[in-house]
Amino acid sequence: MGRITRRGFMAAAGVMAGLATAGDAAAVPRGAVAPAAGGRAADSPEFRGMWLATITNRDWPSRSGLTAAQQRAELIAQLDTAVARRLNAVVFQVRPAADAFWPSPYEPWSQYLTGVQGRDPGWDPLGTAVTEAHRRGLALHAWFNPYRVATHTDPSRLAAGHPARSNPDWVLPYGGKLYYNPGVPEVRAFVQNAMIDAVRRYDIDGVHFDDYFYPYPVAGQAFGDEATFARYGSGFASKAAWRRDNIDRLVREMSERIKETRAGVAFGISPFAVWRNASTDPRGSDTRGGIQTYDDLHADTRTWVKEGWIDYVVPQIYWNIGFAAADYAKLVPWWNTLVKGTGVDLYIGEALYKAGDPGQGAPWQDPAELSRHLTLAGEYGQVRGHCFFSAKEVGADRIGAMARVVADHYPSRVPVP
């Protein structure tokens, strides 16, 4: 099947349209009790989130090099859009490529702010986002990419003093990008330190990883970690098993460190939705995915849930109901069964960016497709909410799919979960 994930989707922004009325935009205080939709108990509100992507300026800032005042105004507008759409959470990408959207002592300021990596933008985007989100009754989850260093392969283009330049043995080129090598123990410790700095300094509600662990396979290319495996992989039956252990260690250790650093901060991951196909493993889903996270990304998402290393999981079920290779109607029950009894909350990642995209099939030209997703998911008791990719489309709403979701499923705002 054609793999659809976060990279490469640069749909054109439109004007913000079809939003809820100003009266609906009044903030719901964090922890307040409000009537909940869909029969959910008032003290257990659903997660209604949107991803706010910063990689390549996808959602925010609209371009690099804006003034601090312009950047701040755009960020506030994104939060206000979330409120108007009756959402209660924003997943804000603050470390897209071994960089930072806060004054980090570990990594340089992101180039997506000023156009120059390492240049101080003159304000604190993460600190502002936390304060302004909470003021509006929104949860703010800080979204980190653990291993991506750059969207190119030239270390000399990184800021002077960048850890990847100071430690060239930490870095591998692959598929036109630079990555930290997950098999190097010092890398695992460093990326955790860089992320935990934000947990320590800010009143964030969650730490969020997306679907990038070992990189997605590129035909004809090998991820060059043979020497690392020779050094650290003794005792493992295969390189694949060793790689999975490296990612398991990252997830488990990060979970422990978050809890040690700040009580109450949730840890969640939004993986590609196919753990394994049932044809590969009888425990897998009734899918024919060309990518399987266990085998291709070396991310054993099933184990993370079963072991309780994460607090919530947001599988990116980015396909329509009835899609032959990966049917939304088959993946939701698979994930529902997986999380049952684990204490891990299940939120479904929704491909809002596909709605109205002329390159997508007929189901995605129907404004009601996403609303039907929420209706179907509502039949499964473990589904605790949804997260929409991504903020640009939440505002622009090309064919009114988001407005339809709000009208059908979000009659009023609910407090943060």
How does this structure look, described?
With about 425 residues, this protein is an alpha/beta fold. It contains 13 helices and 11 strands. The strands form 2 sheets. The protein has an 8-stranded parallel beta barrel with strand order 1-2-3-7-8-9-10-11, surrounded by 6 helices. A hairpin with a 2-residue loop joins strand 5 (about 170-175) and strand 6 (about 175-180).
Produce the secondary structure layout.
Blueprint: E1 47-52, H1 68-84, E2 89-95, H2 111-114, H3 125-135, E3 139-144, E4 148-150, H4 163-166, E5 171-174, E6 177-180, H5 185-201, E7 206-209, H6 226-232, H7 239-261, E8 266-269, H8 293-297, H9 301-307, E9 312-313, H10 328-339, E10 345-350, H11 369-377, E11 383-388, H12 391-396, H13 401-409
Parallel strand pairs: 1-2, 1-11, 2-3, 3-7, 7-8, 8-9, 9-10, 10-11
Antiparallel strand pairs: 4-6, 5-6
Helix pairs in contact: 1-3, 5-7, 11-13
